[in-house]
Automatic annotation (TrEMBL):
Keyword set, alphabetical order: Cell membrane, Membrane, Transmembrane, Transmembrane helix, Transport
Signal sequence interval, chain numbering: none
Transmembrane segments: 34-56, 89-113, 125-144, 150-173, 194-227, 247-268
Protein localization: Cell membrane
GO CC annotations, alphabetized: plasma membrane
Any Gene Ontology biological process: transmembrane transport
Keyword hit for Lipid biosynthesis: no
Keyword Chloroplast attributed: no
Protein name per UniProt: ABC transporter permease subunit
Amino acid sequence: MTNRIAVQRASAEEAGTSAQPGLLKSPRGKPVNVLLGAAGLLTVALILQVLAPLGLVRAQDLPPSTDILTAFFQLLGDSSIWQAVYDTVYVWAIGLAAATVAGVLLGLLIGSLERLRKALSSTVEFLRPIPSVALVPLVVLLFGPRYESALVLVIYAAFWQVLVQTIYGVADVDPVVTETARSYRFTKLGVIRHVVWPTALPFIMTGFRLAATVALVLTVTAQLIIGTPGLGRDIALAESAGANARMYALVLVTGLLGLTVNLLVRLVEKKVLSWHMSFRKDAEE
């Protein structure tokens, strides 16, 4: 019961955080937060610009922001950067899709069977905290420095986010509603479709959103450590060649990719949960 309350509270906070336009707009509807965000980025750029001239850091270690931006715009005209972005997005998307499908299916199964949930709870809690990077030696031995190695790490890391949230979502189904559906002769598939799925879906979308971020982090980390093609490997190559401005420009590209992924996932979440009370309330405001 304590876990359920905590999960409900966490889910409500997650949903509230993702669906409060008030955080993005002032009471008059102006995108004040966007301007504040731009001001924050500008402040960081100004600080980076003066660190080296003030002698606080070496210019070759942390170039001024103008040098980084110059390298960034040069990168945009280089076809290799788009191939690296494609390789990163490819591993991220395949890994996230596989982890989501597996997590949802197993989560629905485990969450629907109380004895199975109790039997596997300790196993899940044991495996879930294991960092994916700890599995790097194993996947390199099994697959070598190839796409498959990064893919396994991404699936492993993202899978637990979706699985745990799905189990919590199924456990949150009101037993009275379930019994009422059965009294109306709903089949097992009908109960899952009309009772379990609508209740679990907000939890699943929360897990999907968390998994999307984790999957991108693990994709770049795997490319950085293992050397599979992508942004992570390009960052490592730039660092080893001493091209620090290019390295920071690649980090900037990775950050923009992460921002894009986050925006897309939130749009998907808003679309899928458009019927949910919190999103409907936000749409009416």
